[in-house]
Write a structure and sequence with these properties.
27% strand; alpha+beta; 5 helices; globular; single chain; Beta-Lactamase; 6-stranded antiparallel beta sheet; HTH_MetabolicPath_Reg; Tscrpt_reg_IclR_C
């Protein structure tokens, strides 16, 4: 938060939901409506997509079981399209929520991995689309490297 001036979150997956376990917000007038312990759908948030990307396997049956409710015009509601997006996120090392849960909200998320390389949590930078996108490449680089540092802390 100090580096970006935007809201940062850490979350884990609980069934079909993202569960927020940590949040730090800046002193800006535009606030993200999340609280510690609150839940958001896993398929249309940056954190959720990053957590799902870490759970891909050959069958992906668990992905096909997800309800893909539509929240905005950008929400992915097709399982095949979601799997393609998750594969892309896993490959590039970060996920994007491009106004998929809430219009105007943009989120970049990166995985926190345990000592065997399993995604156990994710961190994100979230804020108004106009502010995040104007610094997107810098934020991605910073977020991915920060996630790697956190992950390395847990390698035994």
């Amino acid at each position: 938060m100090n580096k970006t001036g935007e809201t940062v979150h850490m979350a884990v997956q609980e069934n079909n939901w993202v569960s927020y376990i940590s949040k730090i917000e800046p002193k800006k007038s535009v606030k993200i409506q999340t609280t510690i312990g609150s839940y958001k759908p896993v398929h249309c948030t940056g954190l959720g997509k990053m957590l799902l990307a870490g759970s891909l396997d050959k069958e992906n049956n668990h992905i096909y079981q997800l309800p893909l409710d539509k929240y905005t015009e950008n929400t992915i509601t097709d399982h095949e399209q979601l799997i393609r997006e998750l594969m892309k996120s896993e490959k590039q090392g970060y996920a994007i929520d491009n106004e998929e849960f809430e219009i105007g909200l943009y989120c970049i998320a990166a995985p926190i991995k345990d000592s065997v390389g399993q995604t156990i949590a994710a961190i994100s930078i979230a804020g108004p689309e106009c502010r995040i996108c104007s610094n997107k490449e810098e934020y991605i680089e910073f977020l991915v490297s920060t996630a790697q540092i956190i992950s390395n802390e847990y390698v035994l």
